[in-house]
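dumping the sequnces here before i forget
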Amino acid sequence: MTTRSTQLLVIGGGATGLGVAWDACLRGLSVTLVEQGDLGQGTSGRYHGLLHSGGRYVLSDPASAADCRRENALLRRLIPHAIEPTGGFFVSTQADSPEYADEWLVACGRLELPVDEIGPATALQREPLLTPRLTRVFEVQDAALDSFDLLHALARGVTQAGGTVLLRHRVSGLVPHGGGLLARIVSHGDESAFQLEAQYVVNAAGPFAGAVAAMAGVRLPLALGKGTMVAMASRLTHTVLNRCKPPHDGDIIVPVGTVCILGTTDVPVRSPTDLAMEAWEIDLLLSEGQVLIPTLRRHRALRAWAGIRALYRPAADRASHPGGDRASSRLGTPEGHPGGDRGATRTLPRAHVLVDHASTDGVPGLVSIIGGKLTTYRKMAEDVVDHVAALSRVKQPCRTASTPLPAAESRHYALDSRPIRLRSASPVDSSIVCECELVSRPDIEDALRQSGSADLDDLRRDLRLGMGPCQGAFCAYRAAAVAARLLSDPPADGGLAAFAQERWRGLRPLAWGRGLRQAEMLRRVQVELLGAASATADDG
Amino acid sequence: MSKSLLVIGAGLAGLFASVLAARRGASVRLIAEGRGGLALSHGCIDLWRDGELRFSLARLDRSHPLRLAGWPALESAFAAFLEIMHEARLPFAGSLDRVWRLPTALGATHITSGAPVSLASGTLDDPEPISIGNLPALRDFSAELVAAGLRSQGVDVRGIVELELPQPRSPRDLYPQEIADLFDDPDYRAQVVSAWKPKLRGVRRLGLPAVLGRDRALEAFASLEQDLGVAPFEIPTLPPSVPGLRIERALRRLAVEAGVDLIEGPSVRGEVDGRSAGKRVSGAVGATAGGPRGYRAHAVLLATGGALHGGWLSFANGEVQEAVFGLPIETSEDREDWAAPTLYQEQPFARLGLRVDARFRPCDRRGRPFFENLFAAGGLVAGSDRTFEGSRQGIDLASAFAAVEAALS
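..and the predicted 3d for all of it:
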């Protein structure tokens, strides 16, 4: 087995890990980042798309709110191509406590958060679908942040700065080694392995951070919370809508691209792969969304998904959060919902925590970073790299606050430029594979050449393939056809069965009314017409 | 006076029932809000995915539509359909006692009981090696995926032949039925033959996407077979699926020729006969462009489809309701369990639909019909997951046949 070396190994290719890698590269460290899946496959790609103004946290967590305010302003300058400045409303309805709005406004003032109170009439003029039962509306600096775009930009920045980003690689061993650590890294593609000597390892694996730490013999107590979200098939609002009330399940609607996202629930779970969505979560998101947009249920819900957030919860903290105990029998049950927040990770501080395992566990060189929010990924990364830099006597200060991220050259995963490119392309190059998201055959060919992966789900994350109204019923086969033509050794079914199953997972929680008809359309095409079958069915 | 029948729904069950009833002398009106499901059909007659059914029919649940129809009705329906298709110059190869194993566009095996001759020629039981033709202009068919899938099943696939369509490139993507329309034209086929023939040396059997003609598919297929000097066969593509559209066009034509009054577009609401003490229906009211219009008939046949096509509506609270008469539909599962965790399992929601009695009349749990003269056929009838069973068209034909029998008796 070959052995390579790096100064810094970052485990986890979400916003945190990539942010750490980018920061460290700018300070001149040699960096290798290992991500077990694809960009955006984990928690960073499974969120609601909100760049927080900070308004959400002014009362519950003022420090986080101040971080959000600063980072929001910075990111608008550093990565403008990934941000849509939608603005946001905090909306107080007749159902909400008027005192809360007063307190909230005072707290915003204390933190110097820019807030404009606008009249309900103005708000309704701008967002006609908003409930007329408004009492007060406050405008804040919320925005929509495309995390796929952010992750691609970070990965590109790391690579351009001389760092290495290894996607679809996992760390299968991590042991102390000559003052640093020795990692065994395995490629998911061909299962080939190599060893990597690292002076420092940053564990930024999110919900998988516990498993990473365990490889080094370290126990990292985490509280895992699952958040479920629903995407509505159309953009019912152009402004982020927040309920002006204490943070709770289903209190936000974020317009992102062609859809809008209802978020989120917060359910304690045991495992980082426990992404199953429950009917009560969907019902709750839709009925809470209906408070903001009364006609919500007349519109089609497109898809549901869940992400897992990990928060640090050392033993001393347990007594105050009994419901989050990993051994508790009520984990993952809807008991107490809606209304109760017992056991939800929402009640834990959202601020990130940095654990240096040299001091806590006697494993020098290993640092874990847990928690935080996508909005503050840059600040978290700065803290981590400051810490590592101090250990390694690197003098360079953090530069990420003043260095813009490289824009992805073509933004090929975004819808906005596609109609223009299609119009200027020759007929043969304008063949459209995915009609919902306007993905052309050359888009797919480029993505296949760049990523080297024929996995349709990787193409989806690169191109939004199959993320529109038909959810892959038609385009998945066409995309598999393009891949089969380009690649020498495509899988026997072009990867269609696995992809269709992934789409099914997000349609299933919404399987009634029109959502059920769409799900059945997917099944008719994939199973009945094409004969896609799961591997297990083949065995039988 | 002849009996009048109002058929609602223009999928396979509704069209087939209309033709049958009109040919038996009934005065038939067919009203459909949408296009019906045939554009989503591979154009074959699936009866049972495991093949043999004659002797295992009695093992099906009592409420399964095939068991309710019974073997004699299924046999008669199947024979009548094949005869009608023969008459429409869309001949089928089929039998209820054997199965055809045909390739799909993914190179999987589709098990069916009846197929148009152009599709049946692709039987995987023929050991002769095959080649697959790739039409670069058609994004809805992949020769590579067909070849890879078939090879993984041990089928002898010799290779892929690139076959350009002889026509100026379209500024946009072509749909399968647009190419099919080109093949209806003998002059176009002559151009195809001269362009393709040099590339087919040594090819014996040639698999092509199912785009070889729409209204003149038989003529197109026979002439290509003769002039190309190979044994071609067709493989259904993504929807809109041409083999399904051929059946749709043929049945519509025959229906109109048999005197069926075909009304397309309006959504319909069922009407109960006010003088019957709620025992009979009188017809339906259609929301036409000119306002509501009543359509009265001695009997009404609902062929409005199942989960996909809107024959029943379902709601977030778990309620399910038949769409035209608002009949209640029972569900035993919670809404959460309607769809199974994996796409490839049997789906509880697919079994939802109207419970019917032995005469295919919608009935309550105790078997009492809601109305004396209201009938149901096709996907609207409860009790089977037709995708999972591979029983879709068998149920359409058998239930339509049985319902027409009952409605006209």
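DSSP finds 16 helices and 22 strands in chain A.
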